[in-house]
Here is the input.
Amino acid sequence: MENQSETQFYQDGAVTVTQSRFVTQSKTYAMRNISSVHVFEIEKSRIGPIIMILIGFPFLFFGDIFWIGLIIIGFAILCLFGIKNEYAVRISTNAGEANSILSYDRVYIQKIVDALNDAIVYRG
Here is the structure.
């Protein structure tokens, strides 16, 4: 049961941040155990599409298989632009660092990090 006098800093369908708890869909953290929090960017590898472009490039110089090269390069470019980095709420506790929430939306992650920082400051 939630304490009615507990100050709430953020809440949505998946996350609640109060002065004493950080609740996600799968885990609850005590704010007293969280020493720091920040946005962590998880960069996705783009090496696969780059290799595909390099493989498709020589095909452009052969007349009868020119179209195969265009298809390979076109598909690789679509893949390259489709790759998006993920962002995580990275918390540091006495047990180490952990990514607690993942999203492709940096603004969403930043809102949660800001709320967690406000809760840490509020606790003193």
